[in-house]
Amino acid sequence: MSSKNFLDVDESIIEKNLLIQSNEEQEFEQFVSGFLNPESGKLVKPAPGLCIKLFKTDKSKVFINLCHHAEIPPPDDITREELVEVLDSKDPEKFCIPLSIGIEHLETDKSDVQVPVYDVAVNSEFFNKCQNDDLFQTFIVCATIEGVAEKFKIDISSENPILLKNRKCIGSLQQHRIQQRPPRPSKFKKKPLIQELNSKASLSQLDIHVKPEYRIYVQPEDNPKNIILDVWMPDVLSSQEIDLKCGEDCLLLTTNKQTKYELDICLPYTINQKNVNVTFNTLTKILSVISTIFSSN
């Protein structure tokens, strides 16, 4: 069965609905900001790693504690040669590193002067990889500096950062709340191990199928009456690009973009195919499918 109740939601409609229904506003904000409720996030205490000393453009000192924890999602596993390829490309951001950046806190340095400190946590396995390769270490240090500068809107000189040899952090490391959220999709594509020469079709012409990030939940939790599926497709511009078919206990979603999204899943409940509501939010790029659940009685 094909669902036909598509609706492109513009910003004005969102604002009007949220002003009336405060509960929906809270749920929407929680989903967009964390993909799960903040209460469901996990507080972790990262381990010390590197202490980086930097200077703002006004010559004042800034410190970054580059720390790590296994709960933080790792980036794509790429080789040194692939990283060189990324750095030489015109789009270095196609290799994304998940960073957890804490709030600014003041600490006292060895000169007994209070200085701003920022804790930035990365995946432990990736941190160890950086420790064993100077190129990866330079890359993560630069990415960390850019992340802090962008988040706090401060001018930090990334030239000649000083990695303190005798200390792994300054002050006490903050706790970080690790939440499951839609990760920023990586643009990095590994080259195929086998590639046919003189092929009539170029790689850019081939269909690339991507499984989108999604979440399934029910309402109410103790006695489910409705099932909700949220799918994040950042490359989709409108509902006209989406084809959705719902069965009694399954769902097939495809798009007609050059980079094609494809999601084929089994649902944990039997749904009412005649009562399926589908909306696509053009701002958040989230497709929401809502249906009533058939009672097992």
From TrEMBL:
Listed InterPro entries: PIH1/Kintoun_subfamily, PIH1_N, PIH1D1/2/3_CS-like
Any one Pfam family match given in the protein's UniProt record, by short name: PIH1_CS
GO cellular-component term (any): ribonucleoprotein complex
Limits of the PIH1 N-terminal domain: 26-183
Entry superkingdom: Eukaryota
Residues covered by the PIH1D1/2/3 CS-like domain: 220-290
Coiled-coil ranges from the UniProt annotation: none
GO annotation, biological process: box C/D snoRNP assembly; rRNA processing
UniProt function note: Involved in the assembly of C/D box small nucleolar ribonucleoprotein (snoRNP) particles. Recruits the SWI/SNF complex to the core promoter of rRNA genes and enhances pre-rRNA transcription. Mediates interaction of TELO2 with the R2TP complex which is necessary for the stability of MTOR and SMG1. Positively regulates the assembly and activity of the mTORC1 complex.
Similarity annotation: Belongs to the PIH1 family.
The protein, known as: PIH1 domain-containing protein 1
Organism name: Aphis gossypii
